[in-house]
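User: My advisor, Dr. K., asked me to get a structural model of this assembly before our group meeting. I'm new to this, so sorry if the format is off. These are the inputs:
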Amino acid sequence: MITLNEGQYAAVTAPDGPALVLAGAGSGKTRVIIERLAWLVGERGVNPRHLLALTFTNKAADEMRRRLALRLGVDRVSAWLGTFHAFGLFLLRREIDRLGRSKSFTVFDDRDQLSLMKRLVKDLPSTCAAVSPREALTWISHLKQRADEPLAGEAGDDAEKTFRLLWARYHEALDRISAVDFDDLLVLLVRLLKEHPDVQEKYQRRYRHILVDEYQDTNHAQYLIAKLLSRGHGNLFVVGDEDQSIYSWRGADINNILDFARDFPDALVYRLEQNYRSTKPILEAANAVVSHNRNRLGKKLWAAADAGEAVRFFLAGDGEEEAHFVVADLVKQRFAPKQVAVLFRTNAQSRLLEEALRKKGIHYIVVGGIKFYGRKEIKDIVCYLRLLVNPADDESLRRVLNVPPRGIGGASFERIEAYATMRGLPLFQVLREIETDDTLAMRARNAAAAFVRLVDDLALEAKTSALAPLTESLIERIGYRGYVEKSDEKDFRIEIIDEFVSSCAQYDVAEGKGLQEFLQDLALVSDTDDYDPEQPAVTLMTCHSAKGLEFDYVYLVGLEEGLLPLVRDYDYDADVEEERRLCYVAMTRARKGLTLSAARSRVLYGRTEERRVSRFVEEAGTAVSPCADRGRAPAKKKAPEAASADPAKMKTGTRVRHAKFGPGTVMYTKGSGDKLKARIRFQTGRTALLMVKQAPLEILEG
DNA sequence: GAGCGAAACGAGGAT
DNA sequence: CGTTTCGCTC
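Assistant: The format is fine. Below is the predicted structure of the whole assembly, which you can bring to the meeting.
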């Protein structure tokens, strides 16, 4: 283990072979990668085409590209810099036919996945356990990412059986329209490299040096990709910080970084512990919090700068008061808006802050939240465009067949669908033949025929036309603007449509790629990509989105038990260590000033709830001082809970009583022993997944 | 089948 | 509280 300080990047970057750089927050992590790339090109004379640098966001890749070009003094860098998912898409476009799949494939984004899964859950036989579409997608995603492990033979509990059934149906639906989802972009790439040694060798030769940023957030499939590509030359250079691993819910495996040295025995391991970003008080507070974690390699960051204002804590009466305090404070302190970020755990918290800022006439931007490309208007248009490329895309057709309304309602659609299922045909094929079907209403028949003509015409136009004019003529022909104009917020929605057309025009100019590539790329665009920190506005975003960014002044709001750390319903299984890391990430975004806040009560789902101050505030210790003229509320003791029920007696159908929710019935259980969880449907109609050992439950006899 | 108001349902984080 | 679905009427 080699610990390095200022100006010693060169030592890190020189050797060949596997290397891990453990770089604390604000220690110049990106700089290490830039220096390494520059050294390889400048000193070793490596052709940039042989370099592959993988990141987690487009934003990080763009930043890297910009800085490397600057460092090398060139206009354009020909190294491959981008996200894992973009790299997967890039290689699959070239090689997916080796897996016996069509080269023209659709990329599903999370909304596509969700709407498909919603339908599949709805169509489930009534004997299946009740699961939510989200749960199912998460379950499938986690299992898929394991990539190389065979399926466990036995089916497990009721919920798992349902998940497996949904998995099969989900992939049937995807295969039918040759679509791939986010995980497939990685998993199919792993398969390609594993099953086709010639392909693996080709890309090993092409990419002589592989660099991975944010290594702590890699999942198993990403780990395999890095490993498979670097086998042979061993030049795998990864940079990360185990204290900033905040994506386990997305499948990230912190063990990839914790076990790197064991996994690559000849690896060199470096530490960067000097922080150039934050003042001493901020760093002390953040260190104090994260030092409560046990599962870490252990680093002690120290500040380059000695002086600095103390970290403050403000306790508000409720959420409104908290938001008001933040806004009044940043005005009082005369911070320039672009110096300030307000960070929160959940997107729902942004509303109060937006209102408070609007009231004072302060400019702000919300990063994340409802994504531009996720808007209904854009999804509608995109689904039409997909249909032009692939008329057999039933999923897209389902969405747009009656948008705007053209007289094909639920009843007609069900008839068409039943017919398609019976004959095993795509829906569009059935629509083509519909004129001969006299069981359908004349209105629906005519509408369907017009729809077929529309798609055919535009598909023809797509062959010769550029993207923007094509999209414009689509919008024209379906009368989409007129349709939107009849609704609320019409100006805003028209603006979104116009913005989409202009983004098509930009793509026409910049990429010179076709409609299909455009549609595939769209799925990978994220909202943080075009975030511009130079705008004269206060930045509002989640702690997750803030990773990799820095601000002069940071307000971290909602430091309450249940919110940060977040605990969902009665799911006591929450991973507090990851929440602590998230808190650490948020705190270390601040350069000069950090203010923490919480509220004594907060409105949730329209109901007011009492809150307790987060344990993280206390853990930050003496580095944090209460805000002037407001005392800190006495930390209330947690109310004693009713004795918990015996997990062994929990079976499907067991009648129970919950201290808060009242009587209910166990729908299914999962896990075992003390970790047994039960999904319970209460008489009130709501269901909850409870840790039996900890929830205030009693078993009712009979 | 479309359109509207009422009721039910639902929000963790996001490539 | 905000959004989606339901169910009734035209």
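One thing worth pointing out at the meeting: The radius of gyration of chain A is 27 Å.

User: Perfect, thanks a lot.
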